[in-house]
Amino acid sequence: MRSLDGWTHDQAADAISRVFKFKSFSEAFGFMTRVALEAQKADHHPDWSNNYDTVTISLSTHDAGGLSPKDIALARAIDKLLD
Ligand SMILES: C[C@H](O)[C@H](O)[C@H]1CNC2=NC(N)=NC(=O)C2=N1
Predict the structure, then answer these.
(1) What pTM was computed for the model?
(2) What are the pLDDT digits (tens) for 7-42?
(3) 58: Cβ below 6 Å to ligand 1?
(4) Residues 6+ apart with CB under 8 A from 27
(5) What's the pLDDT score for residue 3?
(6) Cβ neighbours of residue 9 closer than 8 Å, sequence gap 6 or more
(7) Which of 22, 40, 79, 83 has the fewest CB atoms within 10 Å, i.e. is most exposed?
(8) Domain boundaries, the chain
C-alpha cells in the first residue's frame, strides 16, 4: 500500500480507491477507455464512476471477497497511464 500514492484503503469494503480529476470530460473518458483496456488485459475489472471531469476507481477482488494482489497490480497499471 505504501507504494500506491493517492490510493486509500477502505477497511470496511476491503478495497482500495483513488479519485482522478482531469481538465475535461473528454480527458476523463479517454482515461477510462485506457483503464478499460488494462482491465480487460488483466481480466480484473474496477468498480468505478465518472462525474464530468472526475473518475473514481475502487478495486477489490470479487472472487476473493476483498483485496488481492490483482488489485495492487491493476492500481499500478492505472497509475502508469498517468506518466
Ligand atoms: C470469472 C471471474 O468473474 C473473472 O475471472 C474475473 C472478472 N473480473 C474481475 N474483477 C474483479 N474486480 N474481481 C474479480 O473477482 C473478477 N473476476
Answers:
(1) 0.94
(2) 999 999 999 999 999 999 999 999 999 999 999 999
(3) no
(4) 53
(5) 72
(6) 1, 15, 16, 67
(7) 83
(8) 8-81
User: Phi and psi at residue 2, in whole multiples of 5°?
Assistant: -55, -35
Distance from C-alpha of 59 to C-alpha of 67, rounded to nearest angstrom = 8
CA of residue 80 to ligand 1 center, whole Å? 21
8, β-bridge pairs: 17
Cβ of 44 less than 6 Å from ligand 1: yes
- ipTM of the shown complex: 0.93
Q: Looking at this protein, which amino acid is placed at residue 70?
A: K
- Cβ 45 under 6 angstroms from ligand 1: yes
- Report the percentage of the chain scoring pLDDT > 70: 98
CA Rg value for the chain: 12
Domain 8-81 sits in which CATH superfamily?
Transcriptional coactivator/pterin dehydratase (3.30.1360.20)
